[in-house]
Amino acid sequence: MNSSQVFALPTPLSLESGAVLPTVRVAYHTAGTLNAARDNIIWVCHALTANADVLSWWPGLFGPGGHFDPADWFIVCANILGSCYGSTGPLTPVAAGAEPLYQEFPLVTIRDMVAVHEQLRQQLGLAKIHTLIGGSLGGQQALEWAVQQPAVFDHLVLLATSAQHSPWGIAFNEAQRLAIFADPTYFSATPDGGKAGLQAARAVALLSYRSYDAYAGSQAEPDGERLTDFRASSYQQYQGAKLVARFDAYSYVALSRAMDSHNVGRGRGGVETALRHIRARTLVIGISSDVLFPPAEQQLLARHIGGARYAEMASGFGHDGFLIETAQITHLLERFYVQSFVR
């Protein structure tokens, strides 16, 4: 069974910043069937511009014939707070009869996203989750949730993510936001505001998602005679336009700011202390060519989460490898579950 649904939080949501959202709707997607023992639940936390339909954007890992096949698993994925795929965000009214807030949408943090996930989990009556999995921004949510609710998750799988967003990552996000703010239409408070800025922001982001070798392999010119109209230039333009067609600048700003806020150690005595709260059997996966979340950040997680296992994928795809290298991820998951079973 594959379905898309919406859950309305029963009470206003108080955000970590002190702001309050009077109403919150969360769009979520389920695939597969919950078994009688209720022990086949996989909860996916998605990354920056993804949606709740994980079967559509993580093929090879999720879907018929994948490691997480809906024939065997009950898969849940919720669209994150601040996004534009059905959950409350900058383009949706936050109260009956109100106008969307656009650039005035309040600061949402990773902990706010997790607060919504937790209310949805309770609404669905899911007492225990077999595996919580996420990469990048999704991994930040999964990590925060596992710290907050250590008794809920049996297994935790973290890909290309961190305990605290780095100065390097924040700088990349700020460069993208500056590109959006340089587009005067962003301040027009209309659904199409900031589209040119968003296209430029996505071009900046791609430099952190891929690697030198990935561009050299896919965007090199067949000869050395060209003076302009390079393949790499066209690729940046195309990828920017592709995102503009399916996303909006206001959600992009809101979610990039949420990523910047990520720090599991905030108010908990530091990162190392916070990570010791996790009780799930944990697999942390790094990517050799990832410049946005370099392997050292995943190695730190594995050192300080009790009993965690670390694995590194050799990949030329950079950060995007967590979405592309599904064969490697599947192999690592198979080993992880076998080792967890005999532990």
TrEMBL record:
Identify the catalytic residues: 136, 290, 319
What region holds the AB hydrolase-1 domain? 43-323
| InterPro entries in the cross-refs | AB_hydrolase_1, AB_hydrolase_fold, HAT_MetX-like
SUPFAM superfamilies on file: alpha/beta-Hydrolases
Its recorded name reads: Homoserine O-acetyltransferase
Organism expressing this protein natively: Hymenobacter algoricola
Q: Subunit composition?
A: Homodimer.
* This protein's encoding gene: metX
In the record, the note on similarity to other proteins reads:
Belongs to the AB hydrolase superfamily. MetX family.
